[in-house]
Amino acid sequence: MNTDDLPEPSVEILGAGVVKRATTLADGRDLIYYDDPGTLLGSERAVDARVLDPRPDTATMRLDVLTGDWITVAANRQNRVMMPGADADPLAPQTPGNPSEVPSRYDVAVFENRSPAFGPALAEAVGPAPRADDAPQGLDDLATLDLGRTRTAVGRCEVVCFSPEHSGSFGTQSVTRARTVIEAWADRTATLSRLPGIEQVFPFENRGEAIGVTLPHPHGQIYAYPYVTPRTTRLRESIARTSPDLFARILESEQASERVVLQGEHWTAFVPFAARWPLEVHLLPHRHVADLAETSDAERDELAPLYLRLLRGVDALYESPTPYIAAWHQAPVHVGRDTVRLHLQLTSPRRAADKLKFLAGSEAAMGAWAAEVPPELGAARLREAIARTSPAPSAEGESA
Question: Among residues 217, 219, 282, 329, which one is catalytic?
Fold first, then answer.
């Protein structure tokens, strides 16, 4: 590859003084650096000089006519790297011995997944992303039930690297770094929501081998779906059956309960009334916002230390780190934005220091859950664990 053909990074100043530098990898995938305010990194970024195979074809979706769910069949994901050592970490900055995915030292980096479940094709061509010939023209088309229906799995899957270090998680970052990641989430949510054919954007972090994590590097992902997910579809049905202000009513009810574990001026964290998992926490903003892109600077500023304290409390429950899925539920791009409120759902299968909850017949096959830990007890344990952590992690001098 002629590295002279690769574009220079474009630069943009975001909230909290975060600097965004957008460029591309050797095979045309997007790569975006998000620099901490006051970063010690220079403005230069190395060019990705690797010779890479062509990107895999966009996966195919098949309709499950029994449920109405679309199932993506992405065979390219079978070849993902499994728990590499530090010298072969694909998310670490490139070195002569490790031709990783990120050419330069970074604070936070976001790039298109090399083995995506969705994309790179879109409903309409954008830049290097091709148009899918059978791209869906709307939700009504996707909702039609029939045997043998297929679609191209248009969309985007991105990796969000929280740190250049080989190991850790969101909770091991400094407040400054957490704030940079939150800014990146908000910026990517806004950008991905504008892509043709995208119906919902989902940032999340999988943490721990028990969850199925394949890389120990501190990172999360963002999925941009070509449909509204089944979970959000059911949520919108519940809102339709109750009231448009359902989230405001839930927040008021939970704030008056004994299940609150952490509260600030803009956010409240609580164990929900009908928690399924042994450890489950929801985090809601106090005002209605549809997604992270709609949050204010003040809300993002408070979220960084509050979310870190919540995660460190989760880890303080036991002597070893707790596996979890941290899921940022956002409103769909085109529907329900005035009723579906942004919220975090953090769940863990850990029910004791050396025990995990496995989904057996009733839960896995029928979706009929039985919870072993009363939500009020779970909230009390988590409050005690949070109290054992530092009340406010400092913005400087922590692991990043």
Answer: 219
CATH superfamily of 3-228: HIT-like (3.30.428.10)
What is each CA distance from 121 to 50, 106, 132, 135, 195, in whole angstroms? 23, 28, 6, 9, 11
Residue 221 confidence (pLDDT): 98
The CATH class of 232-387 is alpha beta
* The amino acid at 367: G
d(CA 239, CA 234): 9
What confidence tens digit (pLDDT) does each residue in 210-224 have?
888 889 999 999 999
Please tell me what DSSP assigns to residue 391: S
**Do residues 323 and 350 make contact, with C-beta atoms less than 8 angstroms apart?**
yes
Q: Is 286 a catalytic residue?
A: no
Do 109 and 33 contact (CB within 8 A), yes or no?
Answer: yes
The beta strand positions in 174-217, using DSSP E, are 200-207
Contact of 203 with 160, CB cutoff 8 Å = yes
Tokens of 248: 């405001």
pLDDT tens for 176-212 read 999 999 999 999 999 999 999 999 999 999 999 888 8
Rounded to 5 degrees, φ, ψ at 356 are -120, 150
Q: Compute how many other C-beta atoms are within 10 angstroms of the C-beta atom of residue 375.
A: 19
